[in-house]
Design a protein that fits this description.
It is a single chain. This protein is of the alpha+beta class. The chain has helices at about 40-50, 110-115, 130-150, 175-180, 190-205, 230-240, 260-265, 335-355; strands at about 5, 10-15, 20-30, 65, 70, 75, 80-85, 150-160, 165, 210-215, 245-250, 270, 275, 285, 290, 295-300, 310-315, 320-325. The protein has a single domain, classed as Chorismate synthase, AroC fold, CATH 3.60.150.10. The strands form six sheets. It has a five-stranded antiparallel beta sheet, covered by helices on one side. Strands 9-8-10-16-11 form a five-stranded antiparallel beta sheet. Helix 1 (about 40-50) packs antiparallel against helix 8 and helix 3 packs across helix 8. The two termini are about 30 Å apart.
Amino acid sequence: MSGSSFGTLYRVSTFGESHCAGVGSVVDGCPPGLSLSEADIQTQLTRRRPGQSKVNTPRDEKDQVKILSGVENGKTLGTPIGLFVANEDQRPKDYGEMNQIPRPSHADFTYQEKYGIRASSGGGRSSARETIGRVAAGAIAEKWLHETYGVDIVAWVSACGDLEAGEVDASRITRDQVDANIIRCPDQTVADHMIEFVTSLREEGDSVGGVLNCVVRNCPIGLGEPVFDKLEAKLAQAMLSIPATKGFEIGSGFAGARMRGSVHNDPFTQKDGRLGTTTNHSGGIQGGISNGEPIEFRIAIKPPATISRAQPTATFSGEETVLEAKGRHDPFVVNRAVPIVETMTALVLMDMALMQRSRP
């Protein structure tokens, strides 16, 4: 069995570790004839890359993608698409001290116990660097979904620690608004406080988590395969597979558990030439199937585990010690997760769309 592949008809397999020669993915199932260039993919990779700002890791990677196969004369061939990004600024020596000490709340211990061996630097496959292959593959899916259905996917940072943004109009939010500041929070006043807070944590050698919101507009009705492959179930799987993600809720989420049915129900009405709903507590999905309303969900992302602040812990052999992690690490990763969430959402939607189109 392999845990490195995702999807059924639009299937993505990622490869590479944090400090190997490079990372990437193989995409199988992309329809032929789609106009595709490296520039179409690069935008999201550039938004994901490290070294973007003072609130993220200073690791300097350009993350330039190269299409190895599956595209000729600017058109997809319907054959597997190979995507590759070189690791140019890896520094495995920064992790020498951690060879004998599993980082608290990181995957060092569990990988060692599961496989009897692990990548000795950078977290290996548990590193967020693995997500490069997903983002590249998801950028292709985004392009196909937009050209085929007009699908629009936008994610943004809504919370950083205890700092929460004001309400955002999900029907109008754009990526340009999200990218207007380095923390990717569209509430500029709160964003300024977030940036100040994360900057102070970096100086203290600490980290913090946050919440990310996502909206999908113009999703076609009917996506989702009951009962085990419900659309929200596949979205949850996709989001919870992203490193550091600890929670997922869609529509009213946990708040809906405290509401009455008479308030929570979404009444139907005629709008835009079709049947729609007056409210959207369902988050655009009912019975596991998209209903044509915007799909809205949130994910919780924990603080990055690797911090330079001294922590009492134990070595792999059980001896008590103190770890002060060396290297270049993110004090906050939610802003870098924005393009990861958008492209993982696209992977799910394209897979489900292809399933729906394959029905007789």
